[in-house]
Amino acid sequence: MFSTPSKVSALIRPLNTLRLARNQSTLVLVEHNNEKLNPVTLNAITAARALGGEVNCLVAGTSCSAVAKEVSSVAGISKVLVADDAAFEGFMPEKLTPLLLASQDQFKFTHIIAGASAFSRGLLPRVAAQLDVSPISDIIGIKDSETFVRTIYAGNAIMTLKSMDPVKIVTVRTTAFEAATVGNGAGAVEAAPAAAGDATAVSSFVGQELSKSDRPDLGSAKVVISGGRGMKTGDNFSMLYDLADKLGAAVGASRAAVDAGMVPNDMQIGQTGKIVAPDLYVAVGISGAIQHLAGMKDSKVIVAVNKDAEAPIFQVSDYGLVADLFKAVPEITEKI
């Protein structure tokens, strides 16, 4: 007795899914400073493992063997591709794109993934354009190998999308995925494929001046203290620095404070700034605009200090103090 077409399709579909899972492989783009791994990569590796199939990593830089060794020890990594060359100084997208394309051409990855950061935002859209696929940015969840979840409208709506592109170019919101464990893996380390031809010399790396601070990095700090428009001047941020030093915290700011020139823009938290999810987030003089909430609402505990009892920040905070920040913050600092 012959099966109907619908029954045949029902039998074939699981076999196709099984074949896809078996042939699936993901390349994780490793972000680093040639000395140590950027924690965002560990979150991206967790997302890559959720996709299923083989997980590989690409480390490109100058004198970056220590980073490759560190990555190879991450649990669940099958292979680490290393491209160690002076041409990759400064991690210029123009130089790295041909390398990624050569790796994709040789290994035919089904997914290329990285943590959402300034580095990946500059590189992966360029790679996606060369591969003629649509990049999928800042995902917060994975349904299956083709279906992803991301926020839209400043976090007010959640969209589930399905991509039918042959290779998925994905960036991951790091606060949505746990960091992978370092030290339990034994991935193989080998040289990455050579880039096809020289990158077009439309730009070159001249140098960089990095700000140095004894405080934790804003993106990975367990405690973050942020100031908003209510701080009034940049000099008043000194009281937040004093409190941060006692708590071992990083200091951030709202867009309003940055736009007013109180602090530099690398301190901005929000939709157009950095997205953080610390164990403790203290919002001082911040009203709670949607754009700011999009960057910190995943924090474990949120504390708000504001003299306006109707401020929207109190709707998302776990603890709120309606008080004059210029009196409250020094008192809190003194009592810690």
Describe the structure in your own words.
It is elongated and about 60 Å long. Strand 6 and strand 7 form a beta hairpin. The protein has 336 residues and is of the alpha/beta class. The model is unreliable at 1-22 (pLDDT under 50). It has helices spanning 5-23, 40-51, 65-72, 93-107, 118-131, 238-247, 255-259, 290-293, 313-316, 325-335, and strands at residues 25-29, 54-61, 79-84, 111-115, 136-142, 147-152, 157-162, 168-172, 188-191, 223-227, 250-253, 280-284, 301-306, 319-322. The chain starts with a helix and ends with a helix.
The overall pLDDT average reads 89
Helix coverage percent of residues?
25-40%
Strand order of the largest sheet: 7-6-5-8-4-1-2-3-9
* Gross geometry: elongated
The DSSP helix count reads 10
Regions with little confidence, pLDDT below 50 for 5+ residues: 1-22
End-to-end Cα distance, whole Å, is 80 Å
Largest sheet: 9 strands, mixed
Q: What's the total count of β strands?
A: 14
Radius of gyration: 23 Å
Hey, roughly how much beta strand do the residues contain? 15-25%
Protein structure class: alpha/beta
Q: Helix and strand string, N-terminal first? A: HEHEHEHEHEEEEEEHEHEHEHEH
